[in-house]
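Pipeline run #58 for the internal structure catalog. This entry was flagged by the ingest filter as a single-chain record with no existing model, so it goes straight to prediction. Upstream metadata was stripped on purpose; only the residue string is passed forward. Reviewer on rotation: M.T. Logging verbosity set to normal.
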Amino acid sequence: MFSNPFNRFLILIQRSLDYRRRILIPPIEWLVVIVSLGVALLLLLAFIFTPDGQARSSHFLEGGALTPVSAIFLAMASGFAGASFFLSQSREREGWYPYFWLLAALGVGFLAFDELWQFHEKFGRYLDATAALPIFRSWNDVIVIAYGIAALPILMYFLPEIFRYPKFTEIIAMAFMFYFIHTLIDSAMSPPTTYSIIFEESAKLFCSAYLAIGMFVGLLGVIFSGTHTSLNQT
């Protein structure tokens, strides 16, 4: 009974893959390299310039010097996704797929505020005080994992939109890889060590950076979609 909807879904994905081959966006490899090197340099400086008398991980702690940087990347990603939704609405599109950008803008925007105001940390500490966990280190870990699990069905539904634009899928996949590394370290290390905190927060910052790059690349795809012309043509 599910064969027809599933086949239709596969056809939509194939159409998206065919469509993305006809879209030419400006080169973005240099942007990925520059941002990646910039994040790596920032992490190195945060490791080297430790405040007097504090641990090497002091800048990497929640609310430390790297937290606003992560929030900025997430806010940028939210803005790029919102612009993509606005432009998608201005064109004739069928179905709910353009609403992926609206959900992305809202979801990543929430993460930006969460990064600054520590919603899940505070709620996790409240749950830690009221209910113990037999497996995970804390409720904070459960909430972070739940963010990723909640995103999976949404991403699966919107795969035709995600595959529609060149290089967008690959960069978002990189962001989720760093999210997985961050979550794995956060959940596995109990109690956390200085270097587990450093590696965990480094992975989170790279995740935020790649989300920003990915949403910018998606915006480029939306802008140049429908033209199917070379950037070198006049």
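catalog note: The chain has one domain: 3-224.
catalog note: Confidence is low (pLDDT under 50) at residues 228-234.
status: ready for reviewer M.T.
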